[in-house]
C-alpha cells in the first residue's frame, strides 16, 4: 500500500442509478513493506531524482556532505516543510493558500512586538499562533460561506497581510529579541537535535496520523476527489474545508515563530515567496493540484529537494538570480507531470 492516497475523480459509471460513494478507508503502509510501497508511490518516483541530485552535488561541491552543511540544509527546509505538511491537506482537498508567507511574516512580527513591549514570552508566542489560526479561519470562512475562489481569496489575503506588515513595522525590522527562552525555539537543541528540526518531525507525525489514521484525512481527499459525492454521503464539507485553512494558518504561524527566533529579529520581508516554495514542495511530492491525491512523504522529499537545490547552488557560487530560474523550472516540470497524470487518469476512467 502506498503512502500516496488517490481517489477516483469520477462518480459511478454512466447510467448507474446508485448514489455516489465516499472514498473507502485507506490504511497506511505497513512497516514491513514500507520501502517497497514507497517506490511505487508518488514519493517513490521523486526519491530517485532527489538521490541523483544529492549524488551530483556531493561530487561537485566539496562541502556538501559535511555535518555542518547537512545540518544547515535541515534548518533551511524546516520553515517551508512545516507549512507544506499542512498545505498538503489544502491542496489535496482541491484548494490552495497563497497567504502562508505573509501569515508567517505577520505572526513573527506580532510575537516580536509583544515581547518588546514586555508581554510574557510564552503568552506572546501563544498569541502569535492564535493569530495564524485566526487568519486561516477567515480565509476558510470566506471561501466556504461566500464561495470565493481559494486562489482569489488567499491572493487577496496575501496582498492585504503584506501591506499590514509594512504598515505595522514601517518597513523597519524589529530587533533586540535576545531572550533566552525565545531563542530556544529557533536555536536550541534536545539531545543534540535542533529544536526546529524536532518541530518539523512532530508536525509531520501529526499530519501523517490525521491523513492516514483518521476519517478526517479520508474525508479531505474525498472532497478533493468528488465534492458532490462527498456531500451526498453526509461528509461535513464546510467544517472540513474551514478546518484545513485553520491548520495551514497555524502552521504558518509556527514557521513564523521558528524563523523569528532563529534570526532574533522580525523582518518585514520575511518569508517572501514561501507560498511558491510550499506549493512546489507539495506538488513535486505528488499531491495533485486537482485534489483527491496526497502524499506526505512526497511533500517531505519535495521540501528537501528545494532546500538541497538552493544549498547546492550557493555552494557552487551560482548567481542568485539563476536560483529563481532553476526553482521556477522545477515547479513547471512538477505541475506539467501533475497535468499529464490527471489527463491519463481521465482517459482511463
UniProtKB/TrEMBL annotation:
Main location: membrane
GO cellular component term of the entry, any: plasma membrane
Xref: Pfam families: BPD_transp_2 (PF02653)
Low complexity bias locations: 11-24
Signal peptide coordinates: none
Stretches for region Disordered: 1-24
Segments crossing the lipid bilayer: 46-65, 77-101, 121-143, 150-169, 189-211, 232-259, 321-340
Keywords attached to this entry: Cell inner membrane, Cell membrane, Membrane, Transmembrane, Transmembrane helix, Transport
Topology class, membrane: Multi-pass membrane protein
Keyword Membrane included in the entry's annotation: yes
Locations listed in the record: Cell membrane
Entry-linked InterPro entries: ABC_transp_permease
GO molecular function, one term: transmembrane transporter activity
Protein name: Ribose ABC transporter permease
Source species of the chain: Streptomyces aurantiogriseus
Amino acid at each position: 500500500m502506498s503512502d500516496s492516497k488517490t481517489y477516483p475523480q469520477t462518480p459511478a459509471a454512466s447510467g448507474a442509478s446508485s448514489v455516489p460513494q465516499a472514498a473507502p478507508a485507506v490504511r497506511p503502509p505497513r512497516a514491513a513493506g514500507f520501502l517497497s510501497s514507497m517506490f511505487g508511490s508518488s514519493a517513490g518516483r521523486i526519491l530517485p531524482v532527489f538521490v541523483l541530485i544529492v549524488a551530483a552535488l556531493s561530487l561537485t561541491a566539496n562541502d556538501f556532505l559535511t555535518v555542518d552543511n547537512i545540518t544547515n540544509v535541515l534548518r533551511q527546509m524546516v520553515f517551508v516543510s512545516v507549512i507544506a505538511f499542512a498545505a498538503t491537506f489544502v491542496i489535496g482537498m482541491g484548494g490552495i493558500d497563497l497567504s502562508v508567507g505573509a501569515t508567517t511574516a505577520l505572526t513573527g512580527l506580532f510575537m516580536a512586538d509583544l515581547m518588546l513591549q514586555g508581554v510574557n514570552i510564552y503568552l506572546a508566542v501563544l498569541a502569535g499562533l492564535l493569530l495564524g489560526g485566526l487568519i486561516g479561519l477567515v480565509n476558510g470562512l470566506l471561501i466556504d460561506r461566500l464561495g470565493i475562489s481559494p486562489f482569489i481569496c488567499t491572493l487577496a489575503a496575501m496582498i492585504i497581510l503584506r501591506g499590514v506588515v509594512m504598515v505595522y513595522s514601517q518597513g523597519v525590522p524589529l530587533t533586540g529579541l535576545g531572550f533566552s527562552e525565545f531563542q530556544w525555539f529557533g536555536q536550541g537543541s534536545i539531545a543534540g537535535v535542533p529544536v526546529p528540526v524536532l518541530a518539523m518531525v512532530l508536525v509531520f507525525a501529526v499530519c501523517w496520523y490525521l491523513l492516514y489514521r483518521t476519517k478526517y484525512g479520508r474525508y479531505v481527499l474525498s472532497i478533493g476527489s468528488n465534492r458532490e459525492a462527498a456531500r451526498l454521503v453526509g461528509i461535513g464539507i464546510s467544517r472540513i474545508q474551514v478546518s484545513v485553512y485553520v491548520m495551514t494558518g497555524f502552521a504558518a504561524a509556527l514557521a513564523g515563530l521558528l524563523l523569528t527566533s532563529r534570526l532574533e529579529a522580525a523582518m518585514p520581508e520575511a518569508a517572501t515567496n514561501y507560498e511558491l516554495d510550499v506549493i512546489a514542495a507539495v506538488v513535486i511530492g505528488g499531491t495533485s493540484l486537482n485534489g483527491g491525491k496526497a502524499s506526505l512523504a512526497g511533500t517531505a522529499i519535495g521540501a528537501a529537494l528545494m532546500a538541497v537545490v538552493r544549498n547546492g547552488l550557493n555552494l557552487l557560487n551560482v548567481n542568485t538570480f539563476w536560483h529563481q530560474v532553476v526553482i521556477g523550472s522545477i515547479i513547471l516540470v512538477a505541475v506539467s507531470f501533475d497535468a499529464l497524470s490527471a489527463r491519463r487518469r481521465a482517459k482511463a476512467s
